[in-house]
Write a structure and sequence with these properties.
It is built from four helices and two strands, in the order βααααβ. The protein is mostly helical. α2 crosses α3.
Length: 71
Amino acid sequence: MIIYPVVNLDLIKQLRSDKNISIEEMSTSMGYKGYQGYYYKENGSRKMSAEDIAKISTILSIPINKLFFEK
């Protein structure tokens, strides 16, 4: 059985909150024009791309591999 890494959305949300970064600020930092571009991804309604994960890693100052857990 192959185990694939899954983005840990709860961790991302927690880290963003701990750093006092709003959904709007995160969305703007990632290059979206409105907050919804990021909001739906953090809440799991839309998939995150590799580029999204790289940007989140940089913004939150956390290594990319820490943003995943095995499922």
